[in-house]
Amino acid sequence: MENCKGRSTPCEINSNKVSEENSVPTDNRLYREIIGSLVYIMTATRPDLCYSVTKLSQYLSAPTMSHINTAKHVLRYLKGTANRSLIFRKADEPLHLVGSCDADWGASEDRRSITGYGFHLCSKGPLISWKSRKQPTVALNTCEAEYMSLASAVQE
């Protein structure tokens, strides 16, 4: 992966769909190593990886070549965006908590939505807290999924 071409997006378009030719099961040791490394990087400094890593983590028990290729796409994204990081500077404005949250309604195979949120200490500052995770229950509509996302963010 050292000489690979960098990517500008952390996730491929339509990465949810597994093509038939790439749905061959593969050794999950390499896949788990890649995902474990991505989780470490995401948790420490790269909140832009949250959604991609959360989606890829759902296939740790039975990854296919398609999942490995998607994980490699995330690694290429890291190579292409190696200069990006969280930078904390003294704020010119008063500190106040600014947060946002969102949910994708029922996009997973088990129809549970994925919740994501992020918090800043001022409107122009870097994220200080973020999370992306699968909701514990199935939302019956998009409004319910968004309310579950809001409840998760407020608990933070």
Automatic annotation (TrEMBL):
Q: Which branch of life, at top level? A: Eukaryota
What is the protein's name according to its record?
Uncharacterized protein
